[in-house]
Amino acid sequence: MKKVLIIVISIFLVIILANVFYYKSLYNKQINYIVTLLNRQVQIAGFSVDSTDSFFISDLNEISYSEDPGAFFTNPDNQERVVDKMKVFYLRYRDFVAGMKLYDNRRNEFTLKMDRKTGEWLEQRFVLHMQGEIYNMEKLVEENRIFEYYLPVIQENSTVGNLVVTVDYENYFNAIFSGFNLKDYQWQWVINDSGQIIYDNTQRGISYGQIDRITLALESVSVGNLIHNAVIDGKDEGIVSSYYSTQLLQRNLGLVFSAPTGVFRDYIIRSSLFIFIGTLLSILAIVYVLIRYLKKRESENIKVSESEIMLHKLIEEMPVGVIIHKKNREIMKANKVAANHYSYQSGEEMTGIVFPETTLANVDEYFSKNLGGLLNPEQFIIIRKQTGEVFLYRQSIPLVFMSEEANMEILMDVTLLESARRQEQVE
């Protein structure tokens, strides 16, 4: 029973170690998978932002180069063509553009917007009370969280006005990230070159740790990843983040895709727990059956042991010689009567020796001469001693002794009978 307990404890420890190894291996695989996935997704989003930044300015300049915005307020034909160009540009970047306007140095201004619900264009032309500031260079201006990109309108080598695009970063990032946001499993956020979060679609008020590491990394690499902590709903949790360095209208930005590690950890723990419990129950069932079997065997062994004790006692008390030997004739048990026949002090002295049988040569010849071949010589043993010959009648009985096949030889002393027979022959 003690061995069984040791085996059970050993198996239990092996299961625990196997589950720990399985958990770590599966957890690392899950983390590597999500890192690879986030890296690929953040690069896809980053390439889209890079493309927007690259073509946005060139497409906006194309309006100035192909037409003459400086003559917008004086030439109706020119005005119509410029408005058409502005609408095409607006539609191309409708997720980023919130409105457009064109004004000159004579306080004339034209605004263009589109109702996002109905798709209708809203156009207005009016004269300003005060002349708006005219920028001689391309510039992104932020005012009350509204960003406006100014493009100079050149006429006869001088700046006569500005073509202005109002951009909506939040709406743009909502559109870019809409296909990737998975609520509690994956979300996106954007930081500027100062480490300030300018966009976060989690809407959960997450406080991120080690943002400075991401900001510093974005200065030297275009893409990377980091496992760090964040405070989510007041709880400190581990997250994995992949980031991408990009630029959008003169703003250095970092796109960040994040996913919580706890979701994968909890899933793996649940899976490992089910496997562990299932394996443990199976082992317990096997152990239960094994214990039942061992108890049955133990009960049987006790019965066998009691039977053997009884047989030992019976052999010792028998008035005839008894020898039990294996198939190779090695003696396993002998009583005192049998020991006396072979001139031993006790049966224990005979244990382990080879069953000697007769000590007289030419036994078959003896029986042939004296008994006329009437008896089977194999049923008799003749032992020669100093006082004469001892005649033993033997009876062999096969049996199982001490869980081993054996033979029990019962030896009856018939010396007196043989002497009487000889005397009768003499007379």
Features:
427 residues, alpha+beta, Beta-Lactamase, 6-stranded antiparallel beta sheet, 31% strand, rod-shaped
- Give the helix proportion (percent range): 40-55%
Classify the fold: give the CATH topology of the domain at 52-170: Beta-Lactamase
What does the average pLDDT come to? 83
Distance between the termini: 72 Å
From the alpha carbons, calculate the radius of gyration and give it in angstroms: 53 Å
Describe the structure.
By secondary structure, the protein is an alpha+beta fold. Among the domains are: 119 residues, Beta-Lactamase; 109 residues, Beta-Lactamase (2-Layer Sandwich). It contains 9 helices and 17 strands. Helix 1 packs antiparallel against helix 5. The relative contact order is 0.08.
Could you outline the blueprint of secondary structure elements for this entry?
Blueprint: H1 2-66, H2 76-92, E1 97-104, E2 108-114, E3 121-127, E4 139-143, E5 146-155, E6 158-167, H3 169-177, E7 187-192, E8 197-200, E9 207-208, H4 211-218, E10 223-232, E11 235-248, E12 251-260, H5 261-317, E13 321-326, E14 331-334, H6 336-341, H7 347-350, H8 363-371, E15 380-385, E16 388-401, E17 404-413, H9 415-426
Antiparallel strand pairs: 1-2, 1-6, 2-3, 4-5, 5-6, 7-8, 7-12, 9-10, 10-11, 11-12, 13-14, 13-17, 15-16, 16-17
In a nutshell, what does this entry contain?
The protein has 427 residues and is α+β, with helices and mostly antiparallel strands. Among the domains are: 119 residues, Beta-Lactamase (2-Layer Sandwich), CATH 3.30.450; 109 residues, PAS domain (Beta-Lactamase). It contains 9 helices and 17 strands.
